[in-house]
Specification:
about 325 residues, alpha/beta, Rossmann fold, 3-stranded mixed β-sheet, about 20% strand, globular, binds nicotinamide-adenine-dinucleotide, Lipid_A_modif_metabolic_enz, NAD(P)-bd_dom_sf, Epimerase, Epimerase_deHydtase
């Protein structure tokens, strides 16, 4: 797929986040004019500091729930990628009303406004967590039954359904991406995600407590997530309009125990305790055939290749003071009334 964005203006809502800051950078490199709308709810403006003097970037601080703010950000944009939300179940549980207002009501209102604003392409970033519990003996496909186990996934499914009910009648070509759990380095790191959390804990000599070691999950590098979003924005509309694509790779699915074993190839610490019965029962493997067959999407990264780089960085002191630090995870919302 040609990913040359010269001449296109892309609005990234949530462009200062873990995935968004990587997407923003890739879009600039691909020639796009990029607008970022982000409320910096975790004080995470540092993620864009190195990009703000690049040509073709405009940053707008604001709340997507405000229709005027969104209209200002989107007017004249060719494409909109919606990434902003309260991401992950812990933060959605901690702020249930905000999660409803931002993830569900806010996203629906944005969808309602797309046609009137003349937006040509829209990508909604959803999650493979929507499959929840799915017998890992078979791979969940885009048309498999959804089985959400969290408030976070419920809000994502509500928006997916709202969008898909309208997408064939909309002028804007709209696509849902159900993305695997992210890993990889980003200007806004998140150590509240399995691969990076396990690698950080073991590389810093801490004791790692792992619940439900045999549960499966697919993983996708942040740079590959950015590539998938760009692929969906660039594909001919007839291939992506009103379509759902899982984003990941069939080979990049691991149990938690397998991730621990990968990390242990790079660290000497063996302080791991396994327990059953966590509050997060998710367990699923996913088929990524559709995005590869129809859009030719291939990932450039593999989980095992990342772990060595991260553990070396942690051991070199690149990431001190990570535990519970809002800079490094979605622990505490600081700016959202
Ligand atoms: N990280 C993952 O493992 C993963 C996996 C699957 C899908 N996704 C999806 O990818 C997207 C991005 O995830 P992420 O990990 O980068 O999350 P993140 O929490 O790092 O980033 C979210 C960004 O949205 C902004 N934001 C939140 N509420 C806002 C509001 N009301 N108005 C304006 N900005 C607001 C935040 O300030 C933050 O910069 C989400 O839609 C998420 O559901 C992520």
């Amino acid at each position: 797929m040609n990913l040359d964005f010269n001449g296109r203006t892309v609005l990234v809502v949530g462009g200062a986040g873990y995935v968004g800051s990587v997407l923003t950078s890739r879009l600039l490199d691909a020639g796009a004019r990029v607008r970022v709308l982000d409320q910096l709810i975790y004080d995470n403006g540092f993620s864009l500091q190195h990009l703000l003097d690049r040509e073709r970037i405009t940053f707008l601080r604001g709340d997507l729930r405000d229709p005027e703010v969104f209209a200002r950000a989107a007017s004249g944009a060719d494409d909109v990628a919606l990434l902003a939300s309260l991401v992950g179940d812990p933060v959605c549980k901690k702020y249930p009303e905000l999660a409803r207002q931002v993830n569900a009501d806010g996203a629906r209102r944005i969808i309602d406004d797309l046609d009137a604003l003349g937006v040509q392409r829209f990508v909604f970033t959803s999650t493979c967590s929507n499959y929840g519990i799915h017998d890992p003996a078979s791979f969940a496909r885009e048309d498999s039954e959804l089985n959400p186990q969290s408030r976070y996934a419920q809000t994502k499914i509500e928006v997916e359904q709202y969008l898909l009910e309208r997408a064939t009648r909309m002028q804007t070509s709209s696509t849902v991406l159900r993305i695997a759990t992210a890993y990889g380095l980003s200007p806004r790191m998140r150590f509240d995600l399995t691969v990076s959390q396990f690698a950080w804990e073991l590389a810093s000599g801490a004791e790692l407590l792992v619940y439900d070691a045999e549960t499966w999950r697919p993983y996708c590098h942040v740079r590959d997530i950015a590539k998938a979003i760009m692929t969906a924005l660039m594909a001919p509309p007839e291939m992506v309009r009103a379509e759902v694509f899982n984003v990941g790779d069939n080979t990049q699915q691991f149990t938690k125990r397998m991730i621990v074993e990968e990390v242990q190839k790079h660290v000497t610490s063996t302080k791991v305790t396994y327990r059953d019965g966590d509050t997060d029962p998710r367990n699923y493997r996913v088929s990524f055939d559709k995005i590869s067959d129809r859009l030719g999407f291939q990932m450039d990264h593999r989980v095992p290749d990342y772990i060595g780089a991260l553990t070396a960085a942690v051991q070199a002191g690149v990431f001190p003071d990570v535990r519970g630090n809002p800079r490094y995870g979605n622990y505490e919302v600081r700016h959202l009334g």
